[in-house]
């Protein structure tokens, strides 16, 4: 959503990871961005420009075409229209040139001529990456506000092992979205809970629910993009741990309560998206229960209501709850909002479990009701945070 209709110049420089920029082009395109690939001469040795042209749907600018005057005028047009320049893969060479004011080819000229945000995704041999000159160049670019995604540790094409691999494509896209997000949550300390809790019956069985954590993770990532310091307390989830946040993984409702209450006092915003189990077995068997009896009764007792506890101890935190309802959605959500002393509650229904989309209704403490259409959870996260930001400011 953040990248929709954005003009992105994708600078591709000469490294073996250049082929990964094809997938980056495809995914940026899928997110609705207009991608204008600019390849250096050596990048065009690795990958044919036609591949980028086909995937981006736009002409590819390389040095080869620069003889034409018309083409050079169009380059400047694009540089001016660009919302962001992503250089992926970025070699030590392009980093060095950009850091030292050298503009001796099309890409470095565009980088220098444009005022939009720039994001470098370096990929190179580990010794090159660790070279103090390269490190100095990276620090220099960071100091003037250029962003970096990666590189990561791992096996390198040159046969070495170490830091120098191109960051995963999703991380580069996350970083681009972060560059383009408003920083309206800067200074906020946001605590998010996500996912299900598991309450053990015995070592191999537990009570839980189908929550995937997708909603809470989307909120944590969005808050981080918007400049907040984020703590994500997550129950069991198969999702990738978001980067750049404090991540606490827990299993049970008790563990989630401990972790969340530990971070609560210093938080300014709390968003409880977790599907916390309301009950746990009174006794959890130490050994696997064998199927000897025809019936087995498991006695359950209540877990702590974390959000209720937070409401009771509220000291200026902006509290957001989720209400999972099957009936009387708005009325039931309102009751929870009042009982738990929340500022906002997001009512949703169990159909959203484990899906990438959901339909939610947002209710605030003064009675305002916003019914959103079915949206991607990433988009719901942004909409919820828009309302949180207004609530904090106002
Ligand atoms: N919640 C919590 N601790 C619990 C149960 C729920 O902090 N033990 C939080 C959830 O994370 C959510 C909100 O309270 O933000 C509402 O959760 P929900 O399951 O919809 O409602 P409950 O309060 O558990 O009430 P009920 O199950 O009766 O609908």
Helices, by number, come to 14
Number of domains: 2
**The CATH top-level class label of the largest domain:** Alpha Beta
User: Which oligomerization state do the chains in this entry correspond to?
Assistant: single chain
Distance between the termini: 26 Å
* Shape annotation: elongated
Q: Quote the beta fraction.
A: 15-25%
Write out the CATH superfamily name of the largest domain. CoaB-like
The gyration radius over C-alpha positions equals 25 Å
Count of individual beta strands: 22
Bound small molecules, deduplicated: cytidine-5'-triphosphate
Using the 3D structure, state the CATH architecture of the largest domain: 3-Layer(aba) Sandwich
Low-confidence stretches: none
The CATH topology annotation of the largest domain reads as Rossmann fold
Structural class of the helices, strands and pairings? Answer: alpha/beta
* Rounded average pLDDT: 93
Biggest sheet features:
8 strands, mixed
How would you write the strand order of the largest sheet? 13-12-9-14-17-18-20-21
Q: What percentage of residues falls in helices of 4 or more residues?
A: 25-40%
């Amino acid at each position: 959503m953040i990248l929709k209709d954005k003009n992105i110049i994708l600078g591709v420089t000469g490294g073996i990871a250049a082929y990964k920029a094809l997938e980056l082009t495809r995914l940026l395109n899928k997110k609705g961005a207009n991608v204008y690939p600019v390849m250096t001469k050596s990048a065009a040795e690795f990958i044919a420009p036609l591949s980028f042209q086909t995937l981006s749907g736009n002409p590819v600018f390389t040095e080869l075409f620069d003889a034409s005057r018309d083409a050079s005028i169009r380059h400047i047009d694009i540089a001016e229209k660009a919302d962001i320049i992503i250089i992926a893969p970025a070699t030590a060479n392009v980093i060095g040139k950009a850091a030292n004011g050298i503009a001796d080819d099309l890409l470095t000229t565009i980088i220098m001529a444009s005022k939009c945000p720039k994001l470098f995704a370096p990929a190179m041999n580990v010794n090159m990456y660790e070279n103090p000159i390269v490190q100095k160049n990276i620090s220099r670019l960071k100091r003037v506000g250029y962003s970096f995604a990666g590189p990561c540790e791992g096996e390198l094409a040159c046969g070495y092992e170490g830091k120098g691999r191109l960051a995963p494509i999703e991380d580069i896209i996350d970083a681009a979205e972060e560059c383009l997000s408003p920083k309206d949550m800067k200074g906020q300390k946001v605590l998010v809970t996500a996912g299900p809790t598991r309450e053990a019956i015995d070592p191999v069985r537990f009570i839980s629910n189908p929550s995937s954590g997708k909603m809470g993770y989307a909120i944590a990532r969005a808050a981080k993009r918007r400049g907040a310091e984020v703590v994500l307390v997550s129950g069991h989830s198969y999702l990738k741990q978001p980067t750049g946040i404090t991540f606490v993984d827990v299993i049970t409702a008790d563990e989630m309560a401990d972790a969340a209450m530990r971070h609560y006092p210093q938080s300014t915003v709390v968003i409880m998206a977790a599907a916390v189990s309301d009950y746990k077995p009174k006794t959890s068997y130490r050994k696997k229960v064998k199927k000897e009896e025809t019936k087995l009764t498991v006695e359950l007792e209540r877990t702590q209501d974390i959000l209720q506890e937070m409401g009771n101890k509220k000291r200026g935190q902006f509290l957001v709850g989720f209400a999972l309802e099957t009936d009387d959605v708005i009325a039931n959500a309102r009751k929870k909002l009042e009982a738990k002393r929340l500022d906002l509650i997001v009512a949703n229904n169990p159909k959203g479990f484990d899906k990438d989309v959901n339909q939610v209704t947002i209710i605030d403490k003064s009675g305002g009701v916003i019914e959103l259409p079915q949206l991607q959870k990433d988009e719901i996260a942004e909409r919820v945070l828009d309302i949180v930001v207004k609530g904090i400011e106002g």
